[in-house]
Structures are given as structure tokens and as C-alpha cells.
Amino acid sequence: MKKNCKSLPQYTLKRLTEYLNILYQLREKGISSISSGELAQRMNITDVQVRKDLSCFDSIGKRGVGYDIDKFISIIEEDLGLNRELSVIIIGAGRLGSALIHYKRLSKARFRVKAGFDIAKDKINKTINKVKIFSIEKLDEYLKENKIDIAVFTVPEDEVEGIMDIIKKSDIKAILNFSPGIINSRENLIVRNLDIVSDFKILSYKIKEKNNAD
Amino acid sequence: MKKNCKSLPQYTLKRLTEYLNILYQLREKGISSISSGELAQRMNITDVQVRKDLSCFDSIGKRGVGYDIDKFISIIEEDLGLNRELSVIIIGAGRLGSALIHYKRLSKARFRVKAGFDIAKDKINKTINKVKIFSIEKLDEYLKENKIDIAVFTVPEDEVEGIMDIIKKSDIKAILNFSPGIINSRENLIVRNLDIVSDFKILSYKIKEKNNAD
DNA sequence: CCTTGTGAAAACTTTCACAGCT
DNA sequence: AGCTGTGAAAGTTTTCACAAGG
User: Fold this and answer.
1) How far is CA A177 from CA A43, A104, A155, A163, B151, in A?
2) Out of A123, A193, B174, B183, which could bridge B190 as a Cys pair, Cβ 3.0 to 4.6 Å?
């Protein structure tokens, strides 16, 4: 599906996922086509950026017209691998983990939460939104019997290391880590570290910076 | 506190928040000093990157020795503006919003959640972790009477626009948006868009890419 | 005429190589 | 000797300028 690019540039990849959100919304409204300029405006970027992002793909647009939304969506979905199911486990069934288990947009995008894991006795063997929560002690065994693609970490920082020892021995392909601290992506594992508090801190800096400018 | 830099480079800023997480953890363990090499290893980056990031500040390190952790922490905290309180409201008291209201690391970093807002009658006028939940209809009035720095959006996409109309008229300085879709940061507002599903999709692409490589 | 597509330039970020303290 | 600090080089991303198609 690609032309020149061996693999998508990092920032293009990120934006493609954001284009999708906007395109879904437009499709919902019955709109069938959009120009790079309009899309750029909604994304708060330039129109050239949109077109450059698409230059990795065989021509999607029509000159003088714009992009067909259905076609645009299916090409991105295809390329991101979103037309297959990926199985997910949530490690740490606290409030954030539980929110993710309930998150409808995840299941719409075909990410299937298969199980949760926790250390708290009052959570173990219960279900959250039909997803069973197991003791963390069962994780090793569970991973031997079930093929899981992505493990999500929503546990306190000090539990991460022990869990990683188990994950490394499994066939899990990727980790999405919400705990503070960085999980290294050696060991052939794909890792994304996503600390929400970090984003608050960045806002703090920008607020401060702006105050100084006044 | 800065030397040459007018303002911190975007990626340096992001990493500074991540250094903090690691430094807190080290301080907890009673460690008082660290070299750029050790810190880099924990961050999964190069030692030069660490030192370059710090080149915006007046010399923090000691050659031949490393960085004093207490000093390092206080310089970053000072520069990010983390030694003051920022007031926060959570718009959308669903599972994610509720998780944020309970999130201890936020309060530790001095982000104070002052109120929540929702449209659901069963949530309005209740409290979550001592934070009162108001009707979204009270938002306008609330913002006139209370100085709030950051608004967090944890509402469905279609509610964003109406809420933005109210926010724009207020003195809110920054938005952290968990809804899909991009909020434009014109109107003198600082915005960070943070779609969690987007990170899952990026993992999807990388898993697919890796499979192809085998 | 409108909008896509794209080499080339500009801007930004990371890495290299090495000078400089302690 | 060991680690910090930094100008210069390399690599990546964005923007510019304009060619080309409907």
C-alpha cells in the first residue's frame, strides 16, 4: 500500500490516528469528501503537512477536489492494521484500569480486553464489564494458555519490575505503560510509556511561561 | 534559572517531566547523586541527550561526579512551575474523570481538583473523593466565581464544542483534552490533546510492522 | 481555478567528538 | 580517570515554492 516509505515517520503515524478520529466524525455526518486544507484546519496544522503525511501512500486524493473520506479511512485503517482484532490484558484493575476495560472506543477499534489482573483480594475473581479479573499470580500461567498482543500497565510503579519479569518470558508483543517511570523496550518488546501526570506538568510550564510573557 | 534558552525545547520539556519521576524514585531510595549515563540508561536514551537537556540551566552537575539529586529535582520543579498549586476542574465525571479525581500522583504534584461537572443527574450534587460534581449548566457561573487554571475534558466528543464556548469566555488558561478530536489552541488557550486510543493504534501499527519484518 | 503532490530549503532534534573541570 | 558541557555534524520533521492534474 505504500510507495516510497519503508515505514511511516513517527509523527506521521501519530497524526494518522488523529486524522481517523476526524474522518470518522465527518463520515458520521454524511460528508463524503474533504480537502487537505479543511482537514488541516481541524487538526490545527498546515495543509502541506496533511499532504506530506499522505505521500507515503499511493495517491489517495483527486486534484482540484480533495480526498474521498471512505477511501481515506480504509487506507489508513489497513496500514495501521486496524482491520484485525488485537487481544489486550489490563494489569492493575484500579480506577484507570477499570475505565479502560469499560472504554467503548477501544472495542470499536477492535482492541479486545480479554482479562484483568490485580493483587487486591476484593477484585480477584470478580468481573468488570464481563472481563474477568485474575490474581496477578496467575499471569504467567494465563499467558502460556492465551495469545495476548498487548499488555496495559495500570499498576503502581513498584509493581512494574516483577510483572516485567513475567512479561519478558511470554509472547506479548507490546506494552502500554501508564505507570510513572520508563519501561525499556529492549527484549524485543514494543513499549509506549504514557504518564498522564507528565502532561499536566507540561501545561504547568506553559502556563508559567505565558504569565512571564505578559 | 536559564542560561541561553528562551524557552525549553518541546522534547526537552517532555523528558524533564520523565527525569523527575526517576529522580523521585531514587530520592525515595536514599540515593543522593546520579551520572548522566545512569540516568540515560533508566530513560532509555543517550547520556549526551541528558546533558544537552540540562544545558538550558546553569550548571547543575559536577564533573567527574554527576548530578546532586535534590538540586536536580528542585531546579526542574522550579522551572516547570511545580512549586505552586494549580487548580483543576474535571469536565465529565465518568470512569476516566473519576479516576483522575482520585489520582494521588496529581495531588502530590500540587494539581488540585476543585470540582467536577457532568450532565448525568445521578452524578450531580454528589461528591467523588470529596470533590463536588456540579451540573454542566453551572459551569459558566462556577468559572465566574472561581479561579481555575486547567480544565480537563473527559466527555464524549459531541459535548466538546458546547463546553468550549463556555471555556473561551472564562479565565481558564489550559485544557487537557481526553476526547477524540483536536481542540484548536487559538483563543489564547493552551491545549494538549491526549487520545489514549491513539496510542493503542500506534502499537497496532508497530506490531504489524514487526510481523512483516520477520 | 482549485487542490494535490513533491523536490528543496528551513527549522528542529539528536548524536558525535572532544574540550574542560574536579 | 571520570564525568560534565558544548560547538559542529548528522538526522528528522516541517515549511516553502511551485509543478501538475481534474
Assistant:
1) 26, 20, 9, 12, 24
2) B174
- The shortest CB-CB distance from B42 to any of A182, A185, A195 is to A182
* B99/B10 Cα distance (integer angstroms): 28
Residues pairing with B153 in the sheet: B91, B177
Residues A106 and A173 in one domain: yes
Q: Indicate whether B74 and B140 sit together in one domain.
A: no
Name residues 44-63 of chain A with a Cβ under 7 Å from nucleic strand C: 47-48, 51-52, 54-55, 59-63
pTM of the full structure: 0.96
One domain, residues A36 and A57: yes
Nucleic strand D within 7 A of Cβ B54: yes
Answer yes or no: is B46 CB < 7 A from strand C: yes
Is the residue at B3 inside a domain? no
User: Could you tell me which chain A residue has the CA closest to the CA of B189?
Assistant: A207
Give residue A64's domain range. 10-80
Whether residue B113 is found in the same domain as residue B176: yes
The identity of residue B193, as a single letter, is: N
